[in-house]
Amino acid sequence: MTTHEQGQAKRSGADWLLFVVGFVLFSALGFWGTPALLYAEKPQPFQFSHKVHMEQVSEGCKSCHSFREDGSFTGIPSTDKCKECHSDSPQGNTPQEKTFVEEYLNKGKPVDWQVYSKQPACVFFSHAAHAENAGLECKKCHGDHGDSEKLRTYQQNRLTGYSRDIWGWSILGMGDPPKRMKMDNCADCHRANGVRDACFVCHK
Amino acid sequence: MNWDRRAFVKFAVGAVVGLHASPLVPKLMDDSAIWTQNWNWVPNPEDGALAFANTVNPATGTGVKVCVIAGRLKGERLIRVEGNPEHPTSKGGVVPADASALQNLYYDDFRVKTPLILDQRTGMHVEASWEQALDLVAGKLAELHKAGQAHTVAALGTEAKTLDGELLSRFMAAYGSPNTSFNVSAADTLAMAGWAMTGDENLGFDLLGANYVISFGTPLLEGFGSPVAVRKAFAAWRKDFKRTGTLVQVEPRASVTASQADQWLACKPGTEGAVALGLCQVLIQEGLYDRSIAGAALGFEDGDKGMGFKTLLAKNYSPGQVAQISGVPVETLITVAKAFAKEPKAVAVCGPGNGGEPGRLLDFMAVLALNALKGNLGKPGGLVARQPLGLKPLGEATAYRGDKPRLDGLGTAKRPLGASDHLSLAKGALAGAPYKVNLALVAGGNPAYASPQAGVVRDFLKSVPFVVAITPYLDESSSMAQVVLPCGTFLESWGDSLTPYGGAVSEYGLHKPLIKAYDMVKSQGDVILALAAKLGGAVAQALPFAGAEAALKARTAGLGELAKLAKKSYVVQEKPAYGNLSFKTPSGKLEFFSMNLHNLAVKLTGEGGMGKVLKAMGVTAEGSAALMPHYEPPAALARAGHGRLVLAAVSSLRTPRGDQPITPYMIKVLDGDTLANNDQLVVEMNPQTAHDLHLYEGDLVKVTSTAGSTEARVHLFAGAAPGMVFMPVGLGHYASQNAYTYRRGGNYNQVAEATADPLSGLPTWGLTPVAVSKA
């Protein structure tokens, strides 16, 4: 047996352990580091309880997130919409409502909410087609947001500027709406329901 | 185990493989792709709060004047135009020209973004500063003024009574020129007819209140007054698929209005007025007319002025005679007249022609007479007088004080009535008698394309040594200008609009800058005022405003605070002013024999020479009939026949009439019956007429008149009257800066020939004798 052969025999098993260590260490780093590197936490202007509001209104989500007569969706309600119930002095005694009334309502300033479900500008999405015509519940894509007592942490992708909710909270990109709202989720649902999934259906 | 090179390599390979097994790489790749979509030059609208701002689209001459829109602001860019549901007459509706208004606003190649000065050596426009451009124009004006040639400056505006029109008129009068012309419209004719018979120039049709409407050749559903308001009224007559209102259309072509109407009276071309007189006669012979006002009117019975209207009708317009003239059967005339008399809320409507022409004054008078006999004056669903808006004048009245005659002949014995118009001005200037024009100021419009007999106006502008255009667009007129001054569209400038044609309630629309699309764009009023300030002297004194906003503030002082008005953007009277009309005629009564017209003629020549004056005005009827509603066969028809067809226009809400350029969207929604193969004009002909000329569907033909010619494809249409050829309006632009409209079809205004309307003297271009031959 030559010296070289002796060396080979002596080191083979233990050396491969180093490969495994490198693999495990760096894949763990990737799993942990990717979200830490990519996402920044952004505060909401003030806290908001959907639950409290849902108890006060009669038509559920549509009471505030309504459709216009022409079928277009109003999205985040304007401060004018809030004024339909709120007056220029707070109704409750939470500091959040005080901030809202003083900083936004009385100044007629729109609230600069961080929107969890905001899609890129190149996506055309009709709420009327989904919620009215197809009869999908808001929950299907937005989860139990409407029952939440407070707004959860908003994370923004540093590179794209969009909410983490779009890719989904699983860094592997697993799951279906409401856990994830990427294009493949839209396409899967369209295919499953026999709706066209051609590019121009959403990208006009 | 040794930490040597081999061990390190194994660890490093493990690390790399491990990293790739993590989501880092695929996630970064996905995000990088999305990141590229957000590079700052990618045209995404900026993020921002949503807001809605009210404004009114004045779109002069396009028939979308009062459509109220809400422009949704997103950042500094308008992204959509919608109807304003709170506006009392348009109620949230829009027409294609409103919905696609942003296309021209953001069409960079077509917009004038900075002042431009023509480089004489290269023949190209070069960018200049406002200071340079204004100095050049003011310098030329001052030079001509100094040389005693101020009267050789002509201004071609759009609408006389708007803020921009008033500023232009004051500017020209103070500067010292009588030559200011504007677009003419049916509003001018209706004002004259109202003045002649009732003494009131502000008459309107209460369409919303009516449930029986007879429209005499007007494009009621294709651009009449405020098209949205008229369509809303029409929708109310058809609510829930129940017919609560009846529409009768009198017209030679199965137009959109005719096909939507309950009854279509297919008359011969130009005989709509005769049909109205025929209906008048049926009302009288059946005893179905209003005796209290019409029966007591001046000139109803025979009297000292001669034969009365009643006798005139019996003599010349019996149903049989009218059937002969118009081709509408006697029984139909009688049935329609009886139904019209029976309905409590019925109105007869006259208005613009399909080509946007102002209509024939005598026809309008016949329609007013029909309404008067029906007894609907001042009644709900009838003919009403609008209350004045209460706008303040911009200062002391300023009129031209010099002694030079006007180039358009207005105010002379040949043309005592009427309004100034571009064509007459251009004809006068081209004839050079008594003088030629040295400087032309085109303010706001595009007369080289949109004026009747556009070729004449284009030749006129070509002949003028110095042309200045104040315009938002690089169109046919501005491309001929030595200096182009950029002004904003209604979305980026101050301005106003008045009651649309035939409106039952007075309306005032105000538009303000919602955004600044281009840095150097100003309001048209600001440009005129800046020129006035540069000139100084009497001109600056007549226009002592810091800007268009200040001028609007003075003008609307009676309507409340400008800021509030600008936010709301309109003032509309709540409901029509019902109640008996107070006749402001010399007799104080309704007048079938118009004393106003009589006095005007007498003033010009004395009682003896009146016949001569009326002949010069194109009236062939003699005696008292000449000053009463009667039928004069259109001059164009006399030259038709003998192989010549009669050309008439086809109007549509997809093809604008007048100055407003057609938008890319409007072009896109045109079908093959208007624009074949995307770029060829289509003319409609009756199959029998085509057969006689050996023409088939799709044949390429040349349509030629004395004014000009164009090529078109033939479309056979049984709804077209025999002996006629129908051509769409609003196409055939030839300014190459607008790639969407360039050479798409031919221009109706290029082929249509304008003749002076009897009595009113206004140019009318609804009917033109043409030769149609295979191209």
Describe the structure.
The complex is a heterodimer of chains A (204) and B (775). Chain A is mainly alpha-helical and 204 residues long. Among the domains of chain A are: 37 residues; 89 residues, no CATH class. Helices cover 43% and strands 4% of the residues of chain A. In chain A, strands 1-2 form a two-stranded antiparallel ribbon. The longest helix of chain A has 36 residues. The termini of chain A are far apart. Chain B has 775 residues and is of the alpha/beta class. Chain B folds into five domains: 33 residues; 55 residues, N-terminal domain of TfIIb, CATH 2.20.25; 221 residues, Rossmann fold (3-Layer(aba) Sandwich), CATH 3.40.50; 240 residues, Dimethylsulfoxide Reductase, domain 2; 140 residues, Barwin-like endoglucanases, CATH 2.40.40.20. Helices cover 32% and strands 16% of the residues of chain B. Chain B is built from 27 helices and 28 strands. In chain B, α5 packs across α18, α7 crosses α14 and α10 crosses α13. About 2% of the residues of chain B have low confidence. Classes of the chains: A mainly alpha (204), B alpha/beta (775). The interface between A and B is large, with 39 and 36 residues.
